[in-house]
Amino acid sequence: MSDALPVTQLLYNEEQRLAIESFRKFAEAQLRPLSDKYEKLGHPPDRSTMLTLFKQLDQYGLISGLIAAEDGGPGIDRFTYGLLYEELARVWPDMAIAVLIQSHVVLTLSALGSPELKQNYLEPVLRGERIGCSCISEPNVGSNVREVQTRAAREGDQYRLRGQKLWISNGAQSDFAIVVCQVEGGLNMLIVDRGEDNYRHRELEKMGFVGASTCEMFFDDAVAPVSNLLGRQGGGLFQTLKLFETARVFVGLTSVGVAQAALEESIAYAQQRQQHGKVIAAHQMIQNYIAEMATEVDAARLLCHRALQLLDQRIRCDTQTSMAKWYATEMAVRVASKAIQIHGGVGITKDFRVERHFRNARVLPIPDGTTEIQKLIIGRNILGVSAFS
Ligand SMILES: Cc1cc2nc3c(=O)[nH]c(=O)nc-3n(C[C@H](O)[C@H](O)[C@H](O)COP(=O)(O)OP(=O)(O)OC[C@H]3O[C@@H](n4cnc5c(N)ncnc54)[C@H](O)[C@@H]3O)c2cc1C
To answer: What is the residue with the minimal CA distance to atom 40 of ligand 1?
Structure first.
């Protein structure tokens, strides 16, 4: 860890600093080797490894921590959770994305599930026995969530589901899917079990996050009991947009983690690489890069922290979550690019981690609402007129 962060950390309370310190030790010792291993392998961990990792990560509250105390959960505030999440993203961003999905599946089930659904899905997830995924996007539906085409038709006491989903994180390891679909003329969330062969997946090959599962999912006549409907009939769009609000900040924090890692590696490299008779850290233009990178990482971090604090206080903050998401994700692309520049030729080889950070950073302005969509939300909220349609 470099000296790029300690002043900000002085603002955290004692409990938060201890939590970060303890999690950082675990992440460096246990997760970093796995992060490097799966990056080299070029595929995500299998289901049973993921379940073991989720259990370990939940000792720090990273899976169940956000369940409110009044719902029987640990009730960790989003800000404190976010501090640990950034640490995870700094060491293993692929796992951070997997955790983001699993913890949001937990949040969704906890907030919207009936007692029966909590018993059948939430409790096994909390016991570390099952993995869920969240299916919204489709081949023809990305930014236009309202236009979901996957349909569930009622047949007696079950639904029959037809449709295709795309870009589904944790799809390969999932035991069940929360599917946003059209049900009786409205958008709903329906829980669908994988069972023997109720749905299928195909892993996508991506430029970054190669250690995270991102799948195409096929629901060809998949069935689910009527009681697997989550939340109120027709409430699927509102529920999805609400979840996006929180998830967006964590995509922002994933970017902060990636950028922080790129910054730390650039500082270490600049302090040891000699050119023109001195370390490159002593050249003014390298100092300029480092100063810009450190400032931008911090600015993005602060935008994310503010959004988390607003979410903790249940203050409507879709403007601020969108600001945090677009700024942090685009920041990481700039910072990771400069990190490669500071490394010179070796920066584009797989011998140095900055090459991976650059590929990972470039992915993040896309999920959970692209940069363009975040700006349209901010513009609409400021100007009072929507440019979406
Ligand atoms: C790594 C990764 C993980 C993901 N995980 C999940 C997941 O778990 N579950 C899930 O459901 N989805 C997931 N997604 C999907 C993600 O949310 C979508 O990719 C995203 O919403 C964008 O949709 P699209 O890719 O179809 O792009 P499109 O919507 O086709 O957009 C293409 C381009 O057009 C622009 N555009 C679209 N509409 C407008 C407009 N009105 N005005 C101006 N510009 C516009 C976009 O900004 C973009 O630049 C994931 C994606 C990635 C990359």
So the answer is: 388
